[in-house]
Each structure stands twice: as structure tokens, then as C-alpha cells.
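Progress narrative, Year 2. Work on 3-oxoacyl-[acyl-carrier-protein] synthase 2 from Rikenella microfusus advanced from sequence curation to structure prediction during this period.
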Amino acid sequence: MKLRRVVVTGIGTINPLGNNIEQYFENLEKGVSGATPITHFDASKFKTQFACEVKGFDPNEHFDRKEARKYDRFTQFALVAAKQAVQDAGLTDAEEGIAEGIDKDRVGVVWASGIGGIETFFNEVTNFAKGDGTPKYNPFFIPKMIADIAAGHISMKYGFRGPNYCTVSACSSSNHAFIDALNLIRWGKADIIVSGGSEAAVNPAGIGGFNAMQALSTRNDDPATASRPYDTGRDGFVMGEGAGALVLEEYEHAKARGAKIYAEVVGGGMSADAYHLTAPDPQGAGAARAMQEALKDAGLKPEDVDYINTHGTSTPAGDIPELTGIQSVFGDHIYKVNISSTKSMTGHLLGGAAAVEALACIMAIDRGIVPPTINVTERDPQIDERINLTLGTAQKRDIDCALSNTFGFGGHNSTVIFKKVQ
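Result:
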């Protein structure tokens, strides 16, 4: 069976650096930090009192009041990002109906979230605990909370009747969604799939839970510099929120309707560490296998890759094993590759991380700009000084091929490769 080619024809986002693609790309290039004191709730008693929140988001600007109450924040983000991507891809007409020639039976949605509606769950259980024991739950409690619901709402909004589901693999979730979407189109199961991920865990349960694990930075005196991958002073990740969306489309289908093509999705790889509940394999073996599988799937050699967007969460345990895994795969070519962690700016969007990082890869390919790793004031001496971590400022470079890594609690590893269309 000859596999069909898959390209990106639409992009959208709402995240801590911007509420649309242009804002996001501009701030990525500038090296802006999205970390600020938490405004969603009173965090004064928490070990961590800051996060990378979405700024200036009013759901009533996107949904009517009655509709908005049916959506957890992670679903609101998903719908906003997906709308931008669908419009960008030209799947809708001027009246917001589906454009002529789009077969809705052949359009699917594969979305991702690592946690889903944790805010809804927290609020409903808190309200019950405050009462007299009489169950007074919101009838939308379960539909708002479940992780798959964002994919359902996107399909219902546009009438997309193709494959529809959610991938859940912690912080690896969005890359798994992209890999599934890639394969469904390759295999002829769909012509177009709206894919991406969203998360909204900046709430007492999310911050408190990760604090209990000692996973979050506690640099409360200087939030903007708290996410510092590869720095000797890194002390944990910074929670982020938001969504990223891609419209993936079969190449000939996209050409036939004159769609703009940003990049080609050429391969994906997956593996498991089978090592520890939350810590990565110290040698990066699982990460290496995912990258090797992605290169094999894409029919590429390590020497073909120009840019790697790392998982790079800014945790003491996580950053070095990934670089070790990269070096084992790429050998001396690692010194010719630009590497950066955009989590230094966006924070960690958990299940939505790979979605906004895929967009960073697309920016690198489409605009020839490699986003930086910010906040590194003292580079970890364990890191080979010859590795180009793109520190401090963006670098202009012609990027033909970009690789994106994401890894999740439970040992889930996923890698996706994007390439300039030839």
C-alpha cells in the first residue's frame, strides 16, 4: 500500500504568549516569557504562586453565555484554536459555513488532553463538600470533565463526521494525536483531520497536585525567569495552559483546492521507557527509540534534521536524559542542529504542549526563524558546550526539517517530524 502524503494547511492557537498565531510567533521570536503571578485563584498559600496563564481571554467574546457554561476551560481553548485553524485552512466560507467541495464525512477530529476538565471536577466536588451531603451536581459535570469532549465539540460545531476521538498520554498526548491523524490520512481513512491539544490545569488542584510531587518551580520572586531548561538553577517546570491546532490534509486534496501549505508531516515515532512513574530513563533510551522510529517512519537520516524542539521542561531530572538520547541518535550531527526548548517561554501545557511546540516547528520551517531557549544564565556543565541550544535570542536559519519531542508521566514518548514541502 502506497502511503498518502500529509501536509499542514491551517494553524491556530491560544496560549500564554498570544491569543492567535501572529501574537504567538512574534513573542516566540522575541523570547518573551509568559510567566506571571497566578490570577485564576488565590495562590498565596501554595508553594508555587505563578504560572503561564492565557492573557485577556473572555469566553463571552467567543461563545454566548449559555453555551460557555457547557464547556470547561480546556474545551473553550480547543474551540478557539480549532476555529482559527479551520478558518486559516479555508474549510469555512465567509458565512462560517463549510466551504464548497469539503466532504464532511471525510473530515475528522483527533484532539488531545492529558487531564481534561480538572477545573470542572475540582469545582463540582468542592461545592458538594461544602454542602450538607445532598448531591447537587451540575448536569453538565460529566460532559464538561471528560477528556474526549473537546474533540466531540469541534466535530459538532462544524459537522465533521470522520474519525473522532481524544488521545491521552500525559504530556505526550498531542504528538500522539498528530501521529494518529497522520496515519488515518495516510491510510485513506480521512482526507482532512483537525488535530491538536488543549489543557487548563492552572487551578488549586493542578498547582497543588504538582507541588506535592515537587515538580513545579517555586521561584516566586522572579516568575519570568523560572522556566530555565538546561540552567544549573532549574528547579521544576512552570505550568502553562492553552491550545494549539493544526489542520492536517492529504497533499493532493490540498493542492486541488489551492490550500496554503505550511509544512509536511513526514513521520512519527512512539516508545515507552518502562522505567518509572514520573522520572525518565536516565540514559534517554526511550526518547532515543521514539526519535529513531520517527526518522525511520519518515525515511530520513539524522543528518536531514535541522532543528529539534525538545521536551525540555526545566526539571533537574528531565533535561539531561533527553539530550543524552538526542546525542545517541544524532552523533556528531548534533553540533550542526539548532536545539531549543520553547517551554522556557510558554511554560508546560501538559497534554497541549506538543501542539504549541509543533507550531514553533512550523514557524521555523515557514519563516526561517528558530525560537530561542531563554533564561539560561549558567549552562549546566553536564551539557556538551558544542551543542547549540539557541540561547537567549532567536536565530535565522533555513530550516528544511524540524523534529518535536514530547514525553509524559508513565514513560510515554512521542516524536513528530515536519518538513518543508518539496
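The chain has a mean pLDDT of 97. The CA atoms of residues 12 and 85 lie 4 Å apart.
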